Structures are given as C-alpha cells and as structure tokens.
C-alpha cells in the first residue's frame, strides 16, 4: 500500500510540473502583463487620456516587479491556507 501511495504522489508531482512547463515550451507568444495591454487599449480608444494618479513605487526592473507580484500571491495563498486550516482544526476539535 505504501508504494502505491508514493507512486501516486510522484505522478501528481510530474503532472503539475508538466502542466506548468508545457505551455511555456510549446506556446509561442508574448507573456506580458495585463496592465500594459490595458494601457495600450485605453490609449488606442482615447489618445488624450491622462491617468488620475501615478505609481507609488516603480520597481527598477521587470524581474523585481515579477518577484514582488509572486511574493504577494504566495503570502496571500499562505494566509488563505492558514485560515482554512485553522477553521478546519477548530471544527474537528468540537467533535
């Protein structure tokens, strides 16, 4: 029983890696952010558009911007996981 469980875990890990890597390998395209695309669309519709306010912080490079975005997503996912686990544990203690 133990070896089937380990094999199943490795298959899941392989599937997750494949699902993440295959689109990056086989799909050719520009992986730019939605903010830049939205700005281009707005300027196409109204070339005289002026934003209401500017950025509070402008990262020095795209890599740092990606790192900050990924960190924010990771912290948010960790927080949500913690809250769900906390409520799940609290519910199991009552039983």
What does this structure look like?
The protein has one domain (2-33, 57-94). The chain is 74% helix and 0% strand. It has helices spanning 2-26, 34-45, 62-94. The longest helix is centred in the last third of the chain and has 33 residues, at 62-94. The protein is flat.
Describe, in short, the structure shown.
The chain has 95 residues and is mainly α.
Low-confidence stretches: none
How many strand units?
0
What can be said about the biggest beta sheet? Answer: none
Total number of domains:
1
Q: State which percent range the strand residues make up.
A: under 5%
Set out the fold topology.
Elements: H1 2-26, H2 34-45, H3 62-94
State the main characteristics:
95 residues, mainly alpha, 3 helices
